[in-house]
Amino acid sequence: MSVDPQTDFLEQLGEYRYGFQDPDVSVFKTRKGLDEEVVRQISAMKGEPEWMLQFRLKALNHFLQRPIPTWGADLSNLNLDEIVYYVKPAEMAGRSWDEVPQTIKQTFDRLGIPEAEQKFLAGVGAQYESEMVYHSIQEHLEKQGVIFLSIEDGLRQHPDLFKQYFGTVIPIEDNKFAALNSAVWSGGSFVYVPKGVKVDLPLQAYFRLNIANIGQFERTLIIADEGAQVHYVEGCTAPQYTTDSFHSGVIEIIVKKGARVRYTTIQNWSTNVYNLVTQRAIVEEEGTMEWVDCNLGSKVTMKYPSCYLMGPGAHGEILSMAFAGPGQWQDAGGKVIHFAPHTSSKITSKSISKGGGRASYRGLLKVYKGAEDVRSNVVCDALLLDPQSRSDTYPYIEIDEQDVTIGHEASVSKVGEEQLFYLMSRGLSEEEATTMVVSGFIEPLVKELPMEYAVEMNRLIQLQMEGSIG
Amino acid sequence: MSDELIIRNLRVSIEGKEILKGVNLTLPKGEVHAIMGPNGTGKSTLAYTLMGHPAYEVTDGEVIFKGQNILELEPDERSRLGIFLAFQYPVAIPGVTVANFLRTAVNARRRAQNPEDKGIPIPEFRKLLKAKMELLKVDPSFAGRYLNDGFSGGEKKRAEILQMAVLQPEIAILDETDSGLDIDALRIVAEGVNALRGENLGVLVITHYQRILNYIRPDVVHVMMDGRIVETGDADLALHLEEHGYDWVREKVDNGTPA
């Protein structure tokens, strides 16, 4: 049977480009569903210390007791019994791409990861199903003491550092899905940047789900020691299936005195993935944490990156971008909690809804008593591309201190007939004109991305817009 | 094929109310025509209709350019055919720089001619934009600003003329380009238009006041009243209107003298 490559190409135009699937090459899977036995199996597969098994079991117990949250996006169709919680894709993680099994390597080649690594990254981690299959960092950084390992290798090779911080930023009891992740976590990165070391190029982790009906529960721990700097980028894609898959990560970040961390997400899951992620940073004195959170894909996303500003002079910034197309619900936003005086924060949210998609901004800004001289600004803008789409804003602000300066602005706009007419009068088609208004709308956020990602983001937006006008 | 824009018996309604009641006008390339008239006589309706604004409903007539009735074309198709409208109130497109916008517009034109076109190479585009900005004495920082976002009235009008210079239309309609400009800004904009004048460009200057015509000297002046062209003459007609107002034209129309 032959496939005409031309037709094949045309069919893919304007559709999700990352939806290809590979055969199931996994070497081990737990059975469907979750109970104590499954958790013990995962722990045994990883050869973990006893304290970690106990941590997992305690988390499982908490997860089972806690109800599914109903205050946010619709999770009523999420069937947790139908999911396989652990899939081991290969025997071991490689430090060179040659050690990665051929089928899996081809996938990452198609996604352009090894190419990007050579061009503009300081290190790359690649996760396939439940395990990291590749992890590598530039030698000169390793020599300076920078650690960039899979989370499992982090636990094995640096047990004391690991135990000191793991689970301290996001405790088991934080929420139902953080508890679930704590019970079945697998994969993710362990990053440590020593005092004063600045990692100039980004470290990137790439997450790929391949087979249907599985869950991915990556767990990442990033520690930037005093005065250190690092930028960590995560990207994710999956094939399109008719049944749902599940991704629930936990990201814990510790920003020490005067350190600076930026964490950028380009979430582009296929639209059958539930994406429920907990991300939080603890920021000490004079430290800076920046979340750049771009949510384009998934069926449902619930994700509110947080900054806990613990020390005087700490600064937290959240740039959140969500694109909700047909059948998608993006419930995104951010949280900043000011515990200390002279701290400052900024939340900027931009959402776009199209074709009946639903985007919500959900945010919390809290200032505790005694946190004097706090400055914070929250801006959320929504853009609706048609009358079927929906945008909601839930900005919670709790201030227990007098001496604060808080700003809050929200706006909802529609792509106006006058804007389209104006652009079309210069020769742009309706689709090009709409795309131009949308890319202008997210420009303040895209310009914060490193150039390569900004280009990628503009391309993704164009893909989302293609074929959107009848 | 004709090198003229021919408007025949054009009737246009907006929300059921007839505004243009049979407009006839021929604009050859190489000429500058002015349309003058009191407020509310349909001058801007004519401008928007020629460009294809969806709110204006054409009930009769045709507009022929290059052998086609352009009323059947979408606004972007009209633009790519060579028609340009300098807006009275250009809208802001936040986040899109003047340069990025113009490059996209140039590429849309190139692709219309050749679907395989890969777009204008960036160095070539930079050169083009720089040359046009120098010609129109526009500050280089303009290219990096977001289109019409926070622009003053004068800057908006200059941005319109810059777009016209880059897109090189064959028929340009200037809709009340003089409104809201002080005399210096008006002179700069008019100089820009004059710099673009030539045998490949026909210009339709729509204005309420004569003063812009001191700077852009028209070949033909039309007077529009109550949805029709009621008087046509040479540049002196504009001066006459400046001196005597529109009442004498109105009287002539009311007495049934044909225009």
Biggest sheet record of chain B: 6 strands, mixed
Instruction: Give the low-confidence spans of chain B.
Output: none
User: β content of chain B, as a range?
Assistant: 25-35%
What overall geometry of chain A do the principal axes of the alpha carbons give? Answer: globular
Physical arrangement of strands within the biggest beta sheet of chain B: 6-7-8-3-9-10
Domain SUF system FeS cluster assembly SufBD N-terminal (chain A): 137-204
Domain SUF system FeS cluster assembly SufBD core (chain A): 208-441
Protein name (chain A): Fe-S cluster assembly protein SufB
Family (chain A): Belongs to the iron-sulfur cluster assembly SufBD family.
Structure notes:
Chain B: One of its GO terms (molecular function) is ATP binding. Chain B: Residues 5-251 form the ABC transporter domain. Chain B: InterPro entries: AAA+_ATPase, ABC_transporter-like_ATP-bd, ABC_transporter-like_CS, FeS-cluster_ATPase_SufC, P-loop_NTPase. Chain B: Keywords: ATP-binding, Nucleotide-binding. Chain B: Belongs to the ABC transporter superfamily. Ycf16 family. The complex is a heterodimer of chains A (470) and B (259). Chain A has two domains: 17-303, no CATH class; 421-470, no CATH class. Chain A is an alpha/beta fold. In chain A, helix 7 (151-157) packs across helix 8 (159-165), helix 10 (417-424) crosses helix 11 and helix 11 (430-446) packs antiparallel against helix 12. In chain A, strand 3 and strand 4 (131-137) form a beta hairpin. In chain A, the strands form three sheets. In chain A, strands 5, 6, 8, 9, 11, 12, 14, 16, 17, 19, 21 and 23 form a twelve-stranded mixed sheet that branches. In chain A, strands 4-3-7-10-13-15-18-20-22-24 form a ten-stranded mixed sheet. The two termini of chain A are 33 Å apart. Chain A has twelve helices and 24 strands. Chain B has 259 residues and is α/β, with parallel strands linked by helices. Chain B has a domain at 4-94 and 169-254: Rossmann fold (3-Layer(aba) Sandwich). Helices cover 37% and strands 25% of the residues of chain B. Chain B is built from nine helices and ten strands. Chain B has helices at 43-51, 75-81, 98-113, 122-135, 153-167, 183-196, 212-215, 235-244, 247-254; strands at 4-14, 17-28, 32-36, 57-65, 68-69, 83-86, 171-175, 202-207, 220-225, 228-233. Chain B has a six-stranded mixed sheet, sandwiched between helices. In chain B, strands 2-1-4-5 form a four-stranded antiparallel sheet, covered by helices on one side. In chain B, strand 7, helix 6 (183-196) and strand 8 (202-207) form a beta-alpha-beta unit. In chain B, helix 3 (98-113) runs parallel beside helix 5. The longest helix of chain B is centred in the middle third of the chain and has 16 residues, at 98-113. Classes of the chains: A alpha/beta (470), B alpha/beta (259). The interface between A and B is medium-sized, with 24 and 29 residues.
